[in-house]
Amino acid sequence: SIDAVTAAALPLAGITALRLLRAAGPVAGRRVLLTGASGGVGHYVTELAASSGAAVTAVSATRERGARLLELGAEAVVTSPEEAEGPFDVVLESVGGDSLPAALARLAPGGLLVWFGQASRTPVTLDFFDFFGGPAQARVAHFDYTRADTTYAAELATLVRLVAGGRLHPEIGSVRDWSRTGDAIADIRARRVRGNAVLTVG
Ligand SMILES: NC(=O)c1ccc[n+]([C@@H]2O[C@H](COP(=O)([O-])OP(=O)(O)OC[C@H]3O[C@@H](n4cnc5c(N)ncnc54)[C@H](OP(=O)(O)O)[C@@H]3O)[C@@H](O)[C@H]2O)c1
To answer: Given Cys at both, which of 58, 143, 153, 187 links 69, Cβ 3.0 to 4.6 Å?
Structure first.
């Protein structure tokens, strides 16, 4: 019921977003901070969380890169975690480097930070004493999308149902023939793609 290019944008980023939100727990009425939000996973997380009742603050390199996130339901787009007006009940962090400690400092007492990626390719240094001197009872959890009690088929059926019903809008920032895979990867790494890149065959 959906076209092939849209379907191709669903599997990894879409399944990750569904499972990430389940790992975050109920988000209705919760304040959620999402880093790396202009990427493939980020657009899905933003729309799914916002439509579930979360107040989402999205972190993106520029307001222009984050523009679509506002249309998908984000309350605010900021250009760094420091700029985000917290505190947040949930932080979904995928940039690493300085981003993780800065986002962690925005957590509310008892809040949860789910770490799921390191797009910056810069390791994270977390000071043990800063962490325990920070928000009381804050928790940090690691996330791996392959670990779940649901099948990929069930997740894909959910994603297709939401897209076909007009409730999920895959953001596709690049569509190219598969012979240009290298260019697509270079653009993703240089942060020139918003949302997902799709490669077509034939
Ligand atoms: N744990 C898991 O199971 C799991 C599953 C899927 C993906 N992941 C990870 O989750 C992250 C997000 O996945 P994705 O598919 O959404 O990736 P993506 O499309 O490449 O998006 C990553 C975003 O991170 C931001 N970013 C900040 N600093 C960056 C830097 N130095 N270099 C590149 N990007 C930077 C970029 O947004 P701005 O330019 O706007 O800042 C970019 O749009 C990746 O690290 C991926 O490996 C983990």
So the answer is: 58
Any domain includes 35: yes
The C-alpha R_g of the chain, in whole angstroms, comes to 17
Q: At what angle do helices 11-24 and 152-164 cross, to 10 degrees?
A: 100
Share of the chain above pLDDT 90, in %: 94
Q: How far is the CA of 169 from the centre of ligand 1 (A)?
A: 19
Residue pair 37/45 in contact (Cβ under 8 Å)? The answer is yes
Average pLDDT over residues 73-94: 97
Ligand 1 proximity of 81 Cβ (cutoff 6 Å): no
Domain that holds residue 14: 4-142
- Say how far residue 134 (Cα) sits from the centre of its chain: 24
Query: Separation of 102 CA from ligand 1 center, angstroms?
Result: 17
